[in-house]
Each structure stands twice: as C-alpha cells, then as structure tokens.
Protein: GTP-binding protein SAR1A
Amino acid sequence: MLPFSHFDFVIIVACYMLWAVWSLSEYLVLCVFPGFQVDAVVYLVDAYDKERFAESKKELDALLSDESLANVPFLILGNKIDIPYAASEDELRYHLGLTNFTTGKGKVNLVDSNVRPLEVFMCSIVRKMGYGDGFKWMSQYIN
Ligand SMILES: Nc1nc2c(ncn2[C@@H]2O[C@H](COP(=O)(O)OP(=O)(O)OP(=O)(O)O)[C@@H](O)[C@H]2O)c(=O)[nH]1
Structure:
C-alpha cells in the first residue's frame, strides 16, 4: 500500500517530469518537500557520460550532506555499461569521490555502527543486468 493517494501520486509524477524536462537538480526536491520521508536513495549515473561526472558528483555531494538523509542507504547505480568505453566501477568510484567510502557489498551489518550504507553497483538498464544485485543489497537496510 502506497503512503499517498492516486491523486498525490499523479502530482508527484507530474512534478518529477517537469523537473526532468527543465533539468533541475534532484536535490531541489528535498527543499520543496522537506517533510517527505525518504527510505533510500537510488542515484543513477550514466557511466558513459564521463564529461558529466563532475556534475554528478556535485549533485551526489549535496544529497550526501543533507541532514535529513544522514541515515538513509544510498545505492549508486553506474548505468550503460553495455556501451564500450563506459567507465569501470573503480573509475566511477574515483570520479564520484567514493573510493574507500563505500560500506561493502553482500550482507554487512551496520546496525549500531552509525555508518550510512552506501555502495556502487554497475548496471545496464537496457540489458536488464546489474541493478538487481544493487536493489537486493539495498533491501537489507530498509525496514
Ligand atoms: N546503451 C544503453 N542505453 C541506455 C541505458 N539506459 C538508458 N539508455 C538510453 O539512454 C537514453 C536516455 O538518456 P539518459 O541518459 O537516460 O537521460 P538523458 O535524457 O540523456 O538526460 P540526463 O538525465 O540529463 O542524462 C535513452 O535512449 C535510453 O534508451 C543502458 O543501460 N544502456
């Protein structure tokens, strides 16, 4: 059961589409809906679009430093790895400033550690591969 009505859902989708069309920062969503409860963040990065890594890092940093997301698990998906010359996982971690900053794949118990779960998984949405492992990883941190 979704925590909002069908009408709310339509409004949320419509707002998101406007955001996408105007290429506004996803971070602004948090500013406009400050009380919105977020259980997890899935951050999709185009691993082929290396010229925009700096922009992706800036946006991610804004989300990571938001107090309301301090304990929220972050799943970073590096998409489009089916394209030759897409960045490798290590390369993406480096450009997003996540080297030595992720919390480990598989089952990692972070309860009582005060550490926010954060991990990078590479995927190809068109080939339907990679993201399943990421969502499985993330689900262990959502009650
Ligand atoms: N090869 C490949 N193409 C993909 C994949 N996922 C999405 N696409 C394609 O990417 C195109 C959409 O571009 P996106 O990069 O998602 O987004 P955008 O519209 O360019 O805008 P931004 O969000 O600003 O990057 C569509 O043609 C999709 O089919 C993937 O895993 N592999």
